[in-house]
Design goal:
This protein is α/β, with parallel strands linked by helices and 204 residues long. The protein has 10 helices and 10 strands. Strands 1-2-3-5-7-10 form a 6-stranded mixed sheet. A 4-stranded mixed sheet has the order 4-6-8-9. The protein is globular, with a radius of gyration of 16 Å.
Length: 204
């Protein structure tokens, strides 16, 4: 349920479960993590995460969440691998981002979203803590109070507000999402292999 494509140094991973709002099972998360590590081992210059259909991901599959997936360490492992990637990472959000799927997007260097995307992380309502690294990454982007608005007050944020807050970096029409991600990755793909990682370390 995860599609992989490669072109010119760009590895694109697409969540392909649109009939279930791209909700994530333990198997899917493991597959994404394995493909991320494979991409890095094989010298990817840019990594793009996106989804099929009109939702990027609704988070954990509900049945598996109730069975323990909501607190499984695979979420933190995956976001950690994305955050540590020595290449440019882009979340090309084709629609709404919810729940545990936030971790993948927060760990990326850049986040693009379509105009109708919404952002929410209803851990208070569901009775779970967010994944350990997510609150700090969220607060680094939007500030502590706005992070609490999302995580504690359960607010659902639209794309315009997300851009204003710094949660996303650009709003892009759906038909231009892949092209925009490729354009943003062009310099990283053309540069010396170690340059992107070195710049990321300088930024911190």
């Amino acid at each position: 349920m995860i599609w992989l494509s490669q072109a010119g140094g760009i590895w694109t991973l697409r969540i392909n479960r649109p009939e279930k709002a791209n909700s994530l099972t333990r198997e899917m998360l493991g597959q994404i993590d394995g493909l991320v590590m494979r991409a890095l081992d094989e010298g990817a210059r840019a990594l793009v995460l996106t989804g099929a259909g009109k939702v990027f991901s609704a988070g954990a599959d509900l049945d598996e969440a109730r069975a323990g997936l909501a607190t499984d360490g695979i979420w933190e492992q995956l976001s950690g691998h994305i955050a540590a990637a020595p290449c440019l990472t882009i979340a090309a959000l084709n629609g709404t981002l919810a729940g545990g799927a936030f971790g993948m997007a927060l760990a990326c260097d850049l986040r693009l979203a379509v105009p109708g995307a919404k952002f929410f992380y209803p851990v208070m309502k569901l009775g779970f803590l967010p994944q350990p690294s997510d609150p700090a990454r969220l607060a680094a982007l939007v500030g502590p109070a706005r992070a609490k608005m999302i995580l504690m007050a359960g607010q659902k944020i639209g794309a315009e507000a997300a851009l204003d807050w710094g949660l996303i970096d650009r709003i892009v029409e759906p038909e231009a999402l892949a092209e925009t991600a490729a354009t943003l990755a062009a310099d990283a793909c053309a540069a010396r292999a170690d340059l992107a990682g070195a710049i990321k370390r300088l930024i911190g």
